[in-house]
Amino acid sequence: MLVRLVVLAVLFYVGYRLITGLGKKKTEKKQSEKIVSEQVEDVLVEDPVCHTLLPKGQAIRLQHDDQLYFFCSEECCSRFISDKGEKK
Ligand SMILES: [Zn+2]
Q1: 76 Cα–ligand 1 center, Å
Q2: What are the start-end ranges of the H helices in the chain?
């Protein structure tokens, strides 16, 4: 009997997630619009490889060890990744 209740609860949860998931798609579109406006933001960030300062919107982003890094080019980004890889 308890198992049935658990199964019902799971089914309700999945159904709930599906419904909220459909609703989320609309908000996701709004979020992507937000990212576009964020890219216009010209906050300067430093490239950890060549130490160039560049606008955040133009930078290549990389999430590494819960930290966000910004690079001036794909080259610096891959160089950073390979440097980190060698240390490990
Ligand atoms: Zn660079």
Answers
A1: 5
A2: 2-40, 74-87
Verify that 49 and 88 share a domain, yes or no.
yes
Rounded to the nearest whole angstrom, what is the distance from the C-alpha of residue 51 to the centroid of ligand 1?
A: 7
**If 0-12 CB within 10 Å is exposed, 13-18 middle and 19+ buried, where does residue 68 land?**
exposed
| Mean confidence (pLDDT) of the chain | 83
Q: What is the span of the domain harbouring residue 34?
A: 1-39
The pLDDT tens digits of the residues spanning 47-82 come to: 999 999 999 999 999 999 899 999 999 999 999 999
Token digits for 87? Answer: 């240390």
Q: Are residues 13 and 32 in the same domain?
A: yes
Residue 55 alpha carbon to ligand 1 centre in Å: 12
> Residues near 53 by Cβ (< 8 Å), separated by ≥ 6?
44, 45, 46, 47
